[in-house]
Write a structure and sequence with these properties.
Chain lengths: ~600, ~375
């Protein structure tokens, strides 16, 4: 997972894709209205000019002037529309610019721009006097690298004053440090980028899960309006919300979807020969039939639906079936009234059984099912994502199967559509290890481990006996290792060793995410991640040597303080105590706080 | 990214509709002019005017097509540069089986906490109202509010509140082995030191009253600070130059945040942020993997595991992970790590295989010449 800007950008396609698609649509729109109006003007004038002499004379003049006036009016209208579109286009292109700028930020100082800069920098370094700020920065870097190399120094390097580096040494290593500093800057940039991405993902997620108020508040507080596509997501959400079956089992409202089909998406749907508009119109017709408005239904049918009959056999068949519905209108009205009381739309099976019982002879039942609305939502989302290039659906089938268990998923947008959820669940998996503690309370798993531990413990004592003397002779007290379950207890963030153990900060173990993490897969590893300076303590626990020494320093400090306090209280001799403390060095187990002489640490080779 | 940038520059230049707007203006202008001409001109010349107008309109139409082409070109080239740069198909990325709806509550809680942790208290409130649950307790919110008040004044160069908090929590910080309080005082001292308005006695007085409690642990550092007083006016040239920057402002803020969060039982980074960041770094890799798998018509054969190893940078390593070097499998409680006498560690199953399930017979370590028996191999624990 080393940082690679191009990889990081891959996820951000929608960021540029959406404003690009919008600007393309704006342009197409402008092109269409321009072509149309120019054509009208040209042909009107063309016709007039062809009729030679007919226009001459006072009568002809008035007629021509009238024509001209209407043309002028038309072009004035065109001008107004073009002004609006031009402003729209400007803002579209600006949005693209802002977003490219944002994405480009993480490229600075890396790969592409690095190539350009290196030459300039080479000459820079020799001539430039190093400013204090840089000196400080490099100190930080030194501090960092020292911490990592703790293994070959002893515990005393935590004394203060170790940053007394020679200035000349610094100058000698300035090249090296400069590079390090660049890396540092790069990672700082990536951090900023990640934080912004986090907020963007959250806003997107909030909009998709019907929390527009929070989304709005977050957009305002984070100042990221240019980086999120609030408008189109809100629009889509409204369409879907209207299609969700209301509580009272009334059919949902399709007007929002119809408007969307006729305005925003008209061109797109036409170009892609989508059946969405047809299906929507069909649904409107079906509702008219359901309500028993036969005349309106027939009128609607002939106005909006008949024209599709030439578009293919599927349309034709569907249209035939729909026309057939009219024959059963009375039964349908009767049945829908019956159902409004007690029909459970969530269980289509029960529903169809009911119908079989009530009206054996209504065919085309499938057309009447409220399930159709769920399908409308699905195909709306499909077209919506395609239109904005938001979702790369390999095939329609894939998309359908991903929604196969509607009960598990939230209404409106499917949770899986949210990039936030994708990142979150993947991220949890990436970080989820076998040592993560996902449940504080006892569950089956822990009980199971318990029984394993008993085996382990007996095994362990056995082992101790047989292990060669060299190793055991140094053990002061042979402790039974605390049971695995005890070790597994969550570390208190406030305990002394907590700040040293990275596991305290594991996000997967945190109360926030632990319950979500349970159902997600583990990370896959074929390489070990253990401290390179691993040592084992007599109780079998493995830690980094540096870590143990650091902890020992802390423990010693604390002990000294306590001892001092005691001495002051008791008025005891200062020197005698001090000497006693120094005779032997100890280390403490970070979790169990068991105490061992330093010589009892044994180097291990885990990999 | 460079191609996108290059194409965007062209788009920015040529993608606007201003030329088309100009053309419409011209057309309107011409129409109006010929209308006046017709109105004022000879009634018998109308045909001629119209013919002239017609030819003008035709040139406008041609020019319109040209302008449109000029816009369409950069627009579609920009689109192509997007296609080229974003090849990853994320639908083929490994998808966690299901993200259960039962998790929604937990997710909402995590999101609320994320807002609170980032000091977005209003947003958190709106979110909780909107999703209808009070996911974060008022106490926690108040605790974080207090933290952000202190952080805010820290950022405004006011160390007072932070120092007050640190001295209130001195015992706790001491127990944690944290240098925060001393470092805050150190910062304050350096600040006094560098301000020429302050007489040396003011600086000295500050040191006298504040550093006393720290003399047992920080004596060497305190003496350094005291001698720096001698170089007060040329600090940058003195051996104490780095006092000015250590600890740095960011370090102080970070260390304060760490300690404060720890004191109320939280880690300093939002878990949600860490997970999402890890996920967004991993998704492109998984997607690439997914498309390769699709090409080879292979299936994920993972048993509740991600299909590929995602390398973790140091920042994201929270638990030690031990993979048996023999079997290349992660050890579990069922297949625990065992240490041979020589210090090499392998998994229980590998041990069984190598020792052929005979606990007393000697075998050679797979990595070094030493020999031992399965009985001597000791169960070890990675943290």
């Amino acid at each position: 997972m080393s940082f690679n800007p191009m990889n990081a950008v891959q996820l951000e396609e929608p960021l540029l894709r959406v404003p690009f698609e919008t600007s393309r649509r704006t342009f197409k729109n402008a092109q269409k209205i321009m072509d149309h109006d120019f054509e009208v003007v040209s042909s009107t004038i063309g016709q007039k000019s062809k009729l030679s002499n007919a226009n001459n004379g006072e009568e002809g003049k008035t007629r021509v002037l009238q024509e001209m006036d209407s043309l002028i009016e038309r072009v004035q209208g065109l001008k107004r529309k073009m002004d609006v579109l031009a402003i729209e286009q400007r803002s579209n292109i600006n949005t693209i610019g802002v977003r490219i700028g944002h994405l480009n930020e993480i490229f600075c100082g890396s790969s592409a721009s690095k190539l350009v800069e290196t030459n300039a920098e080479k000459s820079d370094i020799s001539s430039k006097t190093i400013t204090e700020g840089e000196y400080k920065d490099s100190k930080e870097v030194i501090g960092l690298s020292e911490e990592k190399n703790i293994d070959d120094e002893d515990g005393d390097n935590f004394e203060f004053g170790d940053d007394d580096l020679d200035y000349e040494d610094y100058m000698n290593t300035s090249m090296h440090l400069k590079r390090k500093k660049e890396d540092h800057e790069q990672s700082a940039k990536y951090d900023t980028f990640s934080h912004i991405r986090m907020t963007r993902l959250l806003i997107d997620h909030l909009l998709k899960t019907a929390k527009p108020l929070t989304a709005k508040a977050l957009v305002e507080s984070s100042n990221l309006a240019a980086l999120v596509d609030t408008d189109i997501l809100v629009k889509a959400h409204n369409v879907i919300a209207a299609l969700m079956p209301p509580e009272n089992h009334q059919p949902p409202n399709i007007n929002a979807l119809l408007t969307w089909c006729m305005t925003d998406a008209k061109q797109f749907l036409k170009k892609n020969r989508s059946s969405l508009e047809f299906e929507t119109r069909l649904q409107a017709y079906i509702e008219l039939v359901r309500q028993g408005k036969i005349n309106e239904a027939v009128a609607y049918y002939s106005k909006w639906l008949v024209k599709w009959s030439d578009d293919g056999i599927e349309y034709y068949t569907k249209l035939k079936e729909c026309a057939g519905l009219l024959a059963y209108s009375d039964a349908i009205v009767h049945q829908s009234r019956m159902n409004q009381g007690d029909m459970d739309i969530d269980q289509p099976e029960g529903e169809s059984k009911d119908k079989e019982h009530l009206l054996v002879d209504i065919p085309y039942l499938e057309l009447l099912s409220l399930e159709r609305y769920t399908r409308l939502i699905t195909s709306f989302l499909h077209e919506f994502y395609r239109m904005y290039g938001l979702f790369d659906t390999a095939s329609n089938d894939d998309y359908m199967t991903s929604n196969s268990s509607p009960d598990d998923l939230t209404p409106c947008f499917q949770l899986g559509d949210s990039a936030f959820i994708k990142c979150l669940s993947t991220g949890i998996s990436v970080l989820k290890t076998r040592s993560c503690i996902l449940d504080n309370s006892k569950n089956e798993e822990v009980v199971y481990h318990d029984s394993m531990d008993e085996d382990d413990d007996s095994d362990f004592t056995e082992t101790i006996e047989s292990v060669n003397d060299e190793f055991t002779s140094h053990i002061i007290s042979v402790p039974k290792p605390k049971s695995r379950q005890k070790r597994k207890q969550k570390l208190e963030a406030s305990s002394l060793s907590a700040s040293l153990l990275s596991s305290t900060f594991c996000p997967v173990c945190s109360t926030d995410l632990a319950s979500i993490a349970k159902s997600l897969p583990f990370a896959h590893h074929v390489h070990s991640y253990v401290d390179s300076d691993s040592v084992v303590l007599p109780n079998g626990h493995i830690y980094g040597r540096g870590l143990l020494l650091k902890f020992a320093t802390l423990m010693r400090k604390q002990a000294e303080q306590n001892a001092k306090q005691n001495r002051q209280e008791l008025g005891m001799d200062f020197l005698g105590q001090e000497q006693e403390l120094d005779t032997q060095k100890y280390v403490w187990d970070l979790i169990t706080e068991e105490k061992y002489p330093e010589s009892n640490m044994r180097v291990v080779y885990p990999s | 990214m460079e191609t996108i940038l290059k194409e965007f520059e062209k788009l920015q230049e040529n993608g606007q509709l201003s030329k088309c707007q100009g053309l419409v203006d011209d057309l309107l202008d011409t129409l109006m002019k010929s209308r006046t001409q017709i109105e004022q001109g000879d009634v018998n010349n109308i045909d001629a005017y119209l013919k002239l107008l017609k030819s003008k309109v035709d040139t406008y139409t041609k020019r319109a097509k040209l302008h449109q082409k000029e816009i369409h070109g950069p627009l579609s080239r920009f689109g192509k540069s997007l296609d080229k740069s974003f090849k990853t198909n994320f639908s083929s990325a490994y998808q966690a089986p299901t993200f259960l709806k039962s998790n929604e509550e937990a997710l909402n809680k995590a999101i609320s906490m994320h807002f609170v942790r980032n000091g977005n208290f209003e947003v958190a409130q709106v979110f909780m109202n909107e999703s209808g649950g009070s996911y974060v307790s008022d106490t926690t919110i108040a605790q974080f509010e207090a933290m952000f008040v202190i952080l805010h004044s820290l950022k405004n160069n006011n160390l007072g509140p932070a120092i007050a908090w640190a001295s209130d929590n001195r015992d706790y910080l001491k127990h944690r082995g944290s240098d925060l309080e001393f470092n805050l005082h150190k910062c304050q001292f350096v600040r006094l030191l560098l301000d020429p308005e302050n007489s040396p006695s003011v600086v000295l007085n500050y040191a006298r009253t504040k550093f006393g409690v720290f003399s047992d642990i920080y004596l060497s550092e305190i003496s350094r600070l005291m001698t720096s007083l001698l170089y007060r006016h040329e600090l940058d040239l003195s051996p104490y130059a780095n006092l000015r920057y250590s600890p740095s402002f960011e370090e102080i803020c970070q260390s304060f945040t760490n300690e404060y969060c720890a004191s109320i039982g939280f880690s300093s980074d939002s878990p949600l942020y860490l997970a999402v960041t890890a996920g967004s770094a991993a998704l492109p890799i998984l997607a690439k993997m997914g498309s390769i798998m699709k090409l080879k018509r292979a299936e994920w054969s993972s048993l509740n595991e991600l299909p590929v190893e995602i390398e973790l940078p140091k920042k994201f390593q929270f638990h030690p992970i031990f993979v048996c070097p023999v079997s290349k499998e992660q050890t579990t409680d069922l297949n625990p790590p065992r240490m041979l006498v020589c210090g090499h560690i392998i998994s229980q199953e590998s041990l069984n295989a190598i020792s052929r399930n005979r606990s007393n017979s000697k075998f050679k370590c797979p990595y070094c010449p030493s020999e031992c028996t399965a009985l001597e191999a000791k169960r070890v624990y990675f943290e």
